[in-house]
Predict the 3D structure of the following.
Amino acid sequence: MVNLTEEMKNMLKNQLPFLATTGEDGKPQVGPKGSLHVLDDSHLIYFEHTFRQAYNNLSNNHLAAVAVADRGAQKGFRFEGTAHIHEADDFANQILDKTNIFDRFPRAGVVVIDVERIYKLDNTLEAGIQIA
């Protein structure tokens, strides 16, 4: 695994990240994840409550990519790695008990992504270069 920098952490905190997964049929699925945030220096986490496409895709192949960009700065990052789904286990309960997610949704879990690769998404010739 790799370590996120403070710049990356701040961008994930202040911008809307998008999660990309792939279905069994090879079709891509991309969507915003407003609850996605940094768990620690090498893991991202988000709250799963729809249990639809991304959940189904991650249940099948565990591969995830998260893209986040600052439009004004024309800089961004893509984080790739392996996702782990936690639902109704000690870890999920520990995380979700600190939220009010069950006030809005009858079912919830957490998805932890091991960040294994990081790429630049800057509007420069360095776009797409793996940096970690």
